[in-house]
Give the backbone structure.
Amino acid sequence: MLFAVPRSEARQPLGLDADLPFHGKDLWNAWELTWLDARGQPSVATATFAFDAASRNIVESKSLKLYLGSMAMSRFESDDALVTTLKKDLAEVSGGAVDVSVYRRDESEANRIDKLPGDCVDDLEMANFPANVDSQLLATENEVVSATLHSHLLRSLCPVTSQPDIGSVMVRYRGPRIEPVSFLEYVVSFRQHQDFHEACVERMFLDIQSQCRAEELTVYARYNRRGGIDINPFRTNSDDEPGNLRHWRQ
């Protein structure tokens, strides 16, 4: 049931090749995992899958939902046996190692609610209302700073179903100061853009790095769940690490 989508399909139009200007991971949280134990008694848990951004493929999200759903009547000798199966199958389809964690009840770090760091730009008054993604909206000042901005107005469209993907995005950078309203307008310009979550974040990384001359840059999006799964791409050229605490709409 798992369906692979080559990352190269979205990266080639951006001019990306094997020598990526970032590293990172895609954190997927699955909230509707259920299976049978060795005796046939149902078990429930949540799971987190961490895909390396350097892996060959992403997994089409609906296919992952169907795959996880197929486990509802499958018996596993132990939680470890379930994790082994998940790691094997997801690594095979993604073409890279996958970290898998399964959490019973309240064990998951992702069960706690967190806030994005930095300054929220959502209440600023926009001067432009872009209909398409436009990196030229991004503007900087001469002052070099280390700063963090975020917005909860991220919206893009699934390239498979055209359904909306809603989320929040954080940008942490060191470089010329990004004018906050220009960052807001840039985020809003994705509202009708059709791409997978991962590709949207990678486009943002490249645009901000190029247009804003950021020396160090992290872009982290936390998307709302669809089909019981939320997807959270993280890209950086620094030593930043993503936390996995869910946010107010997740």
